[in-house]
Give the backbone structure.
Amino acid sequence: MAEGENASSVALATDPQSSSSSTNQQPHPTTDHSQQQPKRILGFMPNYRAVSAGEIPPPPSARQAFRLATVNSFDYSALLFGGLTSLLAEGTNTHPDLGKSVPGFWGYYWRGFLDKTDGNYMVIYAFPSLTHEDLRYFALGHGGFKRRVFNAASSVLIARNYQGKKVFSVAEVFGRGVAQGISMLYYSDVDNTASAVASRYGYSIGRDAITATFREFWPDIATHILHRNP
């Protein structure tokens, strides 16, 4: 699938004018352009799962959600970031049983790739399609610092359903859990203890909370610190 086609398809999922048969929500476009969420942060990091402050677009269709998961998994930036984190993990000997040098790096890389990919498809596509949850991040864009941090961090536990109501995020909490269950198939016994699996699970949830917080404040960082458009 071509990158242009992917980008065009996933853009529909964050376009307030896009339509979905699963909802009667109406878009409410924001007038504060300084709080617009870009499709890519710094032209690099995919940001298709963020919704600009003041906008309430319809939830993505199952097909759009599948493509969102695909872009988040196979985008060039995701592959590059996976390489960097694998180098760090290999360098710090995070999992001694995986070894060092090129074989060790490869062992970290493909496991990290599978961790991220099966997690993406579970949390972005499979579970939301079943539970009718919208797992995109709806930026607040205004209010006090603590309120905005809470809005972002709590998004891993609180989601919107297809009717726009806030609900417990079954897709995030259980989707990440299923993904960690799958990971036990390709990690060694020493990395499949209860504490090790719980640690990976906590890391994945925490990473999502931090990512949402970064998305929340990115327009402010771009506008007031970098002096550029988001």
Q: What stands out?
A: The CA atoms of residues 29 and 105 lie 45 Å apart. Strands lie at 40-41, 45-46, 50-51, 133-134, 137-138, 158-161, 166-168.
